[in-house]
Amino acid sequence: MCSAIAVNAPVGVMDSGVGGLTVLKHLTRQLPHEHFRYFADSAYAPYGNKTTAEIQQRCFSIADTLITQGSKALVVACNTATAAAIAAMRERYTLPIIGMEPAVKPAAAASKNGIIGVLATTGTLKSAQFAALLEHYGQGVQVVTQACVGLVECIEQGQLNTPQTVSLLQQYCQPLMAAGADTIVLGCTHYPFVKKQIQEIVGPEVTLIDTGAAVAKRLQQVLEQKKILNTARDAGNFVFLTSGTEETERVMHQLWNAE
Ligand code: DGL
Question: Which of 82, 188, 193 to mutate to test the pocket of ligand 1 (most atoms within 8 A of CB)?
């Protein structure tokens, strides 16, 4: 009886704002029969310059909301929040929680010249989790990191092509190009929304890597292992929630329908 309710329950997906929608795209493609509740914490974005304690508090508050709405699992579709809060969340909640981290491992495997760039938030790059990631998978390659201060704010406003956004992207890609990186990790879930713009700046020879597809596969694995995969044949639904304004809702729909 309980498991019958659980399989039809939604999966909660959370991010500091609209960025996790780039992950939700992959989740809905990989798991078309699942229902999703997506929470954009745009009133509190960006997380990249917040303390660990502040991010943990926000994550608890959102998780409480998504769990109250009946979520059977949570996806933290945010590299910064995963680094700051996923351990504390797993201690506090019993449901499965899937997080994400910059794709250093696949980038190191894909790089031909052994130079990889990582674009991410200050919070992610300063975290102990990222240091551990480099320790495990960054050996034998040169890793050039770049914090993209101010970029999340532009994307939160739906500004993907404005002079300000393009100028920030040029500024942040420049050191990676100067170092000769042939592979660049998009280490923040907001950045795939400007993937085309980044590709134009760095050129077609450079490979850009993000983690959305890997997170979707991981969620499927976990739902299968826990026997809570939705086996219904009909299409799942998704609902957008936000701590932001009506403008946030407009941007969410703009970005969701953009591709
Ligand atoms: N989307 C986020 C990430 O993946 C966080 C951006 C922010 O709020 O600074 O890191």
Answer: 188
Domain 2-100+212-257 indexed as CATH 3.40.50.1860: yes
Q: Which atom of ligand 1 is nearest to the CA of 191?
A: 1
Q: The domain 104-209: what is its CATH number?
A: 3.40.50.1860
96 alpha carbon – ligand 1 mean position (Å): 21
Quote the tokens at residue 222.
């976990």
Q: What is the pLDDT of residues 59-104, one digit of tens each?
A: 999 999 999 999 999 999 999 999 999 999 999 999 999 999 999 9
Please report, as a single letter, which amino acid is at residue 216: A
For the chain, what are the domain ranges?
2-100+212-257, 104-209
Catalytic positions are 78, 188
pTM flag (> 0.90): yes
Average pLDDT over residues 186-215: 98
Q: Which amino acid is at 117?
A: G
> How far from 254 is each of 18, 32, 157, 257, CA to CA, in Å?
10, 21, 10, 5
